[in-house]
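Page 37, continued from 36.
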């Protein structure tokens, strides 16, 4: 495991078991040199002398450890693109910093920027010095300078007085007096009359449309100035200082953009079905239709029901209704399977994993439901989530992390999405510095960001908490994702782990730092796929925890490699480390550093260094292949005085071709990573 300090590479070894190391203020690191490690002027040091001064291949083992540079921290070893598995990370609200995406208005070509519906407005007090509005969501905002708005939690809507006239400018218009002038507001426009309602002047109409939009709901007149009027409609709030001859919008800072769904990270579906996209830092309406509404209509026709939620991945479709029915289809809606029992509350949202469609989540009111078998069975996994309507769902199956958008904000929880594991997600609020408002949708993006739609306040984005730390579990040999075996070394990158357990079995932590940790799989571990629970003391004393899937097999061989992908081996006769510039001679015997070879005979205790004399031998049969041809394995044992390392001794054939050859070791049909050896046909003259 590597880190970079002042431009140099440092390798962390299992610090409790490698003799000659001294603990500094953190983990134990050795600087990677051409042949070994050296002292470095940091508070973490390596002592060059091996405490036991062992001879032969055991003594030379210290040098080979110095070359165990699988890759720079956080990246895979050379020649491997296998991504490591992310962890389930318990996050805290304080760790999230949100950034607004665009503003809270939309450009609709009106007299000013528009927002969402305003259902009421009135001037404050008897002086009419400020303006208050009530949005469709029920919140009341007020402004004193007609630029900035603030939430008002105590004001009550005030109804304007009305007068009766013999003639209305449009059916249903409401009329109010302002001195000698009458104003009227209808559904389509605002009007004025200076002759007690005998004739009316349209104040907002132009070319058969309102310049400030339609759907008017209220009109207010300033008490001391009948020329100052404000109007509310489904596009926001508007003000005129000249009796309606000219208008300007007051929506720029009014939190009233009614985003209801995120079609993608920069495209929103508004409450009226309008699709809006961010262009030049502003929201602009775009053509097209809501894809989910179209999917609901198509699937609803096949299931003969009005759907309130639907999701599709490949040919697997899920559908939900307002009565709580949950249905699944595996042939693109041709045939449906219904969950055995209808849910209490309508289904409002469904999420399906695009890579494993049998995994899905559904929101039923305040409850969260899970299926991992394609809808045959749904179990409730709400846990201790604060009671609130769930509107949006996003998840990362490989990490076992779920994000929810609810009436009480945004939450994150850990939940197994590969199997019907424990349903205690340990929810944490991650709204952080977001405004206090219901969250209507949440989206997990491919670039490790999280996008959230807030009622009225628009769209916000932040780094996805569980991916910010990028906690991963990898092989200790080459830092790639692969199964482990009893006795294996595994590494956790991105976290300082203090305790690890699985079903009552403790995994010893051999080394840990803020960046990485090294563990040993217990020799008593049984084959299978498990959820490994890791614990760490987080910042300011907070407890962090992760749950990572780990597959254990009887054998999972892996050869240690350096930063260039070269195997870590030494010449048995001389004890010299063989790097990529040193050829392996024909007829020689070499020892390869490996892990994952499983149980040993006699049995050995987990976490205890192997003895220098007669180290336990690998119980299974180890085979090796050079360019696809079997070569002799003379012995395979635990590496003396170390934990989790194995030494495999190989007899190189007497006749070989000069140049690079491919080496692999195999146990129980499981192959190791493939590495390169550089062979020399003839032994050097004596």
């Amino acid at each position: 495991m590597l880190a970079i300090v002042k431009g140099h590479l440092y390798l962390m070894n299992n610090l409790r078991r490698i003799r000659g190391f001294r603990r500094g203020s953190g983990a134990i690191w050795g600087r990677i040199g051409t042949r070994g490690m050296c002292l470095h002027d940091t508070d973490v040091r390596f002592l060059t002398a091996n405490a036991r001064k062992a001879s032969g291949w055991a003594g030379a083992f210290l040098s080979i450890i110095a070359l165990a540079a699988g890759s720079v921290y956080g990246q895979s070893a050379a020649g491997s693109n296998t991504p490591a598995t992310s962890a389930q990370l318990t996050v805290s609200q304080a760790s999230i910093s949100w950034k607004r995406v665009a503003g809270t208005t939309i450009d609709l070509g009106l007299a000013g920027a528009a927002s969402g519906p305003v259902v009421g407005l009135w001037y404050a007090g008897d002086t009419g010095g400020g303006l208050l509005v009530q949005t469709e969501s029920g919140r009341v905002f007020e402004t004193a300078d007609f630029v900035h708005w603030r939430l008002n939690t105590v004001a009550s809507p005030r109804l304007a007085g009305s007068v009766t006239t013999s003639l209305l400018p449009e059916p249903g218009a409401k009329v109010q007096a302002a001195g000698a002038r009458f104003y009227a507001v209808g559904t389509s426009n605002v009007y004025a009359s200076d002759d007690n309602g005998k004739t009316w002047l349209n104040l907002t109409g132009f070319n058969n449309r309102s310049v400030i939009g339609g759907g008017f709901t209220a009109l207010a007149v300033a008490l001391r100035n009948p020329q100052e009027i404000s109007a509310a409609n489904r596009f926001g709030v508007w003000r005129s200082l000249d009796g309606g001859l000219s208008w300007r919008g007051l929506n720029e800072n009014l939190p009233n953009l009614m985003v209801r769904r995120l079609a993608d990270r920069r495209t929103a579906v508004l409450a009226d079905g309008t699709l809006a996209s961010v262009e030049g830092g502003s929201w602009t309406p775009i053509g097209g239709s809501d894809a989910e509404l179209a999917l609901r209509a198509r699937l609803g026709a096949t299931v003969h029901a009005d759907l309130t939620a639907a999701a599709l991945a490949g040919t697997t479709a899920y559908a939900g209704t307002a009565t709580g029915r949950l249905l699944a289809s595996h042939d693109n809606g041709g045939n449906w399977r219904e969950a055995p029992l209808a849910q209490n509350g309508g289904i409002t949202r469904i999420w399906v994993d695009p890579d494993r469609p049998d995994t899905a989540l559904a929101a039923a009111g305040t409850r969260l439901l899970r299926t991992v078998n394609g809808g045959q069975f749904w179990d409730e996994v709400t846990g201790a989530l604060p009671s609130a309507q769930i509107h949006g769902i996003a998840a990362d199956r490989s990490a076992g992390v779920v994000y929810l958008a609810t009436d009480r904000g945004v939450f994150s929880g850990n939940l197994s999405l590969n199997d019907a594991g424990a349903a205690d997600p340990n929810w944490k609020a991650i709204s952080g510095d977001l405004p206090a408002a219901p969250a209507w949708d949440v989206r997990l993006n491919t670039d490790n960001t999280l996008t959230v739609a807030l009622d009225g306040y628009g769209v916000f984005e932040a780094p996805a908490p569980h991916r910010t730390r990028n906690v991963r579990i990898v092989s200790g040999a080459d830092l790639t994702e692969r199964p482990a075996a009893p006795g294996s070394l595994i590494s956790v990158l991105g976290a300082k782990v203090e305790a690890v357990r699985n079903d009552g079995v403790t995994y010893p932590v051999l080394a840990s730092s803020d960046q990485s940790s090294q563990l040993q799989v217990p020799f008593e571990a049984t084959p299978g796929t498990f959820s490994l629970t890791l614990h760490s003391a987080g910042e300011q004393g907070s407890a962090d925890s992760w749950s990572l899937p780990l597959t254990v097999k009887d054998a999972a061989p892996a050869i240690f490699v350096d930063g260039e992908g070269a195997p870590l081996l030494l010449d048995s006769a001389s004890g010299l480390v063989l790097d990529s510039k040193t050829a392996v001679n024909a007829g020689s015997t070499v020892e390869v550093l490996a892990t994952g070879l499983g149980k040993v005979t006699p049995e050995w205790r987990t976490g205890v260094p192997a003895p220098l004399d007669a180290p336990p031998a690998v119980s299974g049969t180890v085979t090796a292949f050079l360019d696809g041809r079997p070569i002799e394995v003379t012995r395979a044992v635990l590496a003396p005085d170390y934990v989790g390392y194995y030494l495999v001794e190989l007899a190189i054939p007497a006749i070989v071709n000069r140049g690079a050859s491919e080496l692999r070791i195999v146990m129980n049909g499981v192959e190791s990573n493939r590495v390169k050896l550089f062979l020399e046909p003839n032994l050097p003259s004596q």
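The CA atoms of residues 173 and 186 lie 4 Å apart. Flag for discussion at group meeting. The chain has a mean pLDDT of 82.
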